[in-house]
Amino acid sequence: MVQASEVYRQSDRPAVALISNHGYAGVEIPLGGAPDTGGQNLYVNSLAEALDRLGYRVTVFTRGGFPHFGNGRIREEEEFLTDHIRYVYVPGGGNTFIRKEDIAVALDEEVDWIDAFIRQEAAQRGLPPWAIYEFVNTHYWDAAVLGTRLVERWRNDTVANVISKLFEKATPPEKMKQLSEERHWRALGEAPTYHIGRFLIDSADSASVSLVERVRDAVKSYAWATGLNEAKAIKEVVESAEEALEVAKNRTAPALHEIVVSDAIGAAILRLFPRQAQWLQSDLETVDRHVWTPHSLGSLKQENFRDQPPEVCRALKFCERRSHERTVCDRTSAFAATSFEIAERLRTHYRVPGERIFYFPPCVDTTVFRCYADDEVSATYDYLSKLSGVAAEKLKSAVIVFETSRMDQTKRKDILLDAFAGVAREREDVYLFIGGGPENELFQALTARRDANDPLKGRAFLTGFIPDEHIAPLFSVADMYVSPSEMEGFGMSVLQAAASGTAVVSSHLTPFAVRYVPQDAIIVRAGEVDGFARAMRQLIDHEVDRRQRAERLRAKAQELNWEVQTDNFLGHLRQRGFSIARGRVGP
After folding, report:
1. DSSP at 74
2. Dihedral angle of Cα 416, 419, 420, 424, to the nearest 10 degrees
3. CA-to-CA distance for 492 and 332, rounded, in angstroms?
4. Any idea what DSSP says for residue 11?
5. Count of H helices and E strands in the chain?
6. H or E element, residue 377
7. Which end of the chain is more exposed for a tag (fewer CB within 10 A), N or C?
8. pLDDT of 1
């Protein structure tokens, strides 16, 4: 772990914020699996490193304040991935781990904290809070809620500032102070014209019970206090109020007339002050710096579970999640889709125009996931030998089947165990290693399933969390990587296996395998135990074919380069109207 970097503090590079909120995001990612921790976390860190190489300074916000699963440490202080990438751990939601399906309970506290953190840094630099970062890129729905809430607050600031400029001469200071203090509770940025009109109506005392007369009295007081031409103000504002009221009488209940009229009054006042209107429009566009990378979508995952019983689906809270995602899509102007399926669902289920979506699949660090030489993997064979009780030399001459992911039912490790049992009955030189944790109820159930199946005894092993120093070499050591997963946004572990020169068997629900390497990976319909068994037998029995497939997979994986894709991403955002400064490589 890199300690606090003075280089970061002194750097004048343009800054970018990433938010990845659930699980054990951080400088040190348990690549062997941890609760709600996996491919997304590797994606975010890899994206941050690519931005660093392109000359940006990166802040990654993530939830902290609870004990780390491995060492019990409470993560509170800033940590540095590189001199230009810092992790900021955000408190909220209490001091215990919260699974991603329940994380909504923490978001209000977290947005308060992040907002205060950004404002403090902005004040030190003499900037408004939205000017600190070139853009804010959020990952998964929970982080996206935080991102949209930040933009909402910045919009509130903008509207409060405009109202202050419009009314400061006509309004007591204490009322302006109250407006500033209540700007977020009033949600000024959600209905700017309404709040401007409402403020005018409330700014002058009037005994009249007639809405139009109250408006007339307010306009007279406002014109007198600001030096505005009274006749012009009355004509523009009062006539707009009268027209709006006539329309409202035919369409809404009397109790709602004041809402319609307030909107019309606000629009009329802005017409009287075109410069303020132009500033407001420009500032509202400027503060919208949020870009969402979903990684997965509730509607897509729910389809994968449509045949599951209610008791399985309830815990995943699909309805709640879809509601959050719809709100985010309605309030976000730019998106990055990590798979075609996600891009398609954004369009078909969430009404996002295609031109707003940048296709940004996970890429791979080929300096980490690669073909390792024999002298580089001896320690990994020793690790497997100690874990399994099988001599390292025997493992080197055997066929090793590998899978690693978090210990979650959607990864269908049970399918892999059952399929491998059929293979193990026929071959004595094959071994299966399944990585991932924690050692929860599913882990215990899989252990019992393995122990009850005679062909798996001494042949299949549940590793738990794999030490970081062995995870990448293990991909290279394996002869094949088998993923029966039924829930994948892209399939980063399959991509890592491909980059490592390892043959792949994958379910048809893994986008990387289906979209990028359908001819080179062996693709099996999810849930088909016999299909996975046949695929493994094919690769075991035909070594030349296995090696040729592995080499083609490795070559294909080289095309997914983090730095190139990240630079293309920035170009797309600029085309979408984001004003993103060019990176500055160096201190």
Report:
1. B
2. 170
3. 26
4. -
5. 26, 14
6. none
7. N
8. 42
In single-letter form, the type of residue at position 87 comes to Y
With tokens 């892209």, the residue in question is 490
Q: Which tokens belong to 293?
A: 């990378």
Hey, what are 40's tokens? Answer: 């997304």
Amino acid, single-letter form, for residue 16:
V
DSSP H stretches of helix in 371-522:
378-388, 392-397, 413-426, 441-451, 468-477, 492-499, 511-516
First-to-last C-alpha distance (Å) of the chain: 19
- Three-state DSSP at 518 gives coil
Q: What is the pTM of this model?
A: 0.78
- The 8-class DSSP code of residue 15 comes to E
SS3 label, residue 359: strand
Q: State both tokens at 25.
A: 């995001």
Decide if 6-155+287-359 and 374-560 have a common fold. yes
Q: Using an 8 Å Cβ cutoff, are 403 and 483 in contact?
A: yes
**Whether the Cβ atoms of residue 11 and residue 581 lie closer than 8 Å to each other:** no
The fold of the 6-155+287-359 domain, in CATH, is: Rossmann fold (3.40.50)
| Nearest C-alpha neighbor of 400 from the set 423, 378, 369, 429 | 429
| Domain residue limits, the chain | 6-155+287-359, 160-284, 374-560
What class is the 374-560 domain? alpha beta
Provide the pLDDT for residue 42: 86
For residue 303, what are its two tokens? 């389809």
For residues 529 and 415, give the distance between their C-alpha atoms in angstroms, rounded to a whole number: 6
Q: Which residues pair with 402 in a beta bridge?
A: 433, 481
Dig out the tokens for 57 from the structure: 């300074």
**Regions of the chain where pLDDT drops below 70:** 1-4, 31-33, 204, 206-207, 489, 587
d(CA 345, CA 276): 39
| Residue 244 contacts residue 261 (beta carbons within 8 Å) | yes
- At residue 2, the pLDDT reads 42
User: Is-contact 153 307, C-beta < 8 A?
Assistant: no
Chain centre distance of CA 80: 20
Q: How many residues does the chain have?
A: 587
Sequence-separated (6 or more) residues with CB below 8 Å from residue 325: 141, 144, 294, 297, 298, 299, 350
Give the up-direction half-sphere exposure of residue 299: CA atoms within 13 A in the CB hemisphere. Answer: 17
Q: For residues 208-234, b (16+ Cβ closer than 10 Å) or e, as one string? A: eeebeebbbbbbbbbbeeeebeeeebb
